[in-house]
Amino acid sequence: MHWRVPHGGAQWKAVQGEPNRQAFLAGIRHGTVHGAVAFRASSPVGWVCYGPRTEFPRLLTVRALRGTEQAGAWSVVCFYIPTRERGTGVATALLEAAKRFTRDSGATCLEGYPTVPQTVSPIPAAFAWTGVPAIFERAGFQDESGLGASRPIFRVWFRRP
Question: What share of the chain is helix, strand, coil (3-state, %, to 5)?
């Protein structure tokens, strides 16, 4: 829900916990929250949240992403992969599912904003919830960070506007 709240600070504190849970459930019921869950046998092993970039107002307030908007873009904003499942291809499979859904929904492109590792050690989950570049690269995304953003932006294009 972080990206669905326009600003941090007091606005974020006001919706933490139960208000966010209720807003998330309402979004699912109304079809404005999109995502995919991965299962191994009958157990969930990860999920990804994505949607039209316009559904994530916080993206417009992040200085590092200003000026990078693309008409018809959808965004991948959050992954959750339990520690025991990391490195097994779950995140890549979820990203592939997000690509199929967004392409079939008419998006011009799908973009993500991964955390870039600063060491060779795995990034703690608390800092890697937007994914890491390797996931996006394996799924065929291109690094378009040089287009004015100071934060990494990886995109896969379905059709240019």
Answer: 40, 20, 40
What is the distance in angstroms between the CA of the first residue and the CA of the last residue of the chain?
Answer: 28
Which structure tokens are listed for 31? 């079809």
- Name the nearest CA neighbour of 130 among 71, 70, 64: 64
Tokens 């994505």 label which residue? 50
What does each of the 161 residues of the chain score in pLDDT, given as a tens digit? 677 776 666 766 766 778 777 877 888 888 888 999 999 999 999 999 999 999 888 888 887 787 788 999 999 999 999 888 988 999 999 999 999 999 999 999 999 999 887 767 666 666 678 888 999 999 999 998 875 556 789 999 999 87
Q: Which amino acid is at 152?
A: P
Please tell me the distance from the alpha carbon of residue 130 to that of residue 157, in angstroms, as a whole number: 19
Written as six digits, the tokens of 154 are 């990886």
Residue 104 CB neighbours (<10 A): 9
Closest listed residue to residue 40, CA positions, set 101, 98, 99, 93: 93
